[in-house]
Amino acid sequence: VQLQACGGGLVQTGGSLTLSCAASASGDTFSTYALGWFRQAPGKERTLVATITRGGQTYYTNFFAGRFTIYRDNAKNMMYLQMSGLEPEDTAIYYCTADDDRTVVTVRSPYWGQGTQVTVSS
Hints:
With 122 residues, this protein is mostly beta strands. The protein has one helix spanning 27-30, and strands at residues 3-6, 9-12, 17-23, 34-40, 47-52, 58-60, 68-73, 78-83, 92-99, 111-112, 116-121. The longest helix is centred in the first third of the chain and has 4 residues, at 27-30. The protein is globular, with a radius of gyration of 13 Å.
């Protein structure tokens, strides 16, 4: 499956953005993938933001819960990350990822989008 992330941009502190991830998989296949978002800030490791299982269960790294919402639309082969209350510390490249072998995504998941830049100004 090929993934294409978009929706990043420049936003002020406290603002909102919704990232999108489009997948090339067929509809039946896409629904079987675990999906998720990672982010990587300059000089830092890639960090899990959120993941959603094929069944729609969502999991968030603690400090993202409450501000970020991950969801998927299997009919459109799309995944989204709705972000609110953005802070300068959220500035990073955001990557979408998919996994057809695990319940949730990890850094070892096989399919990655190219990333989309989110910049939060103070």
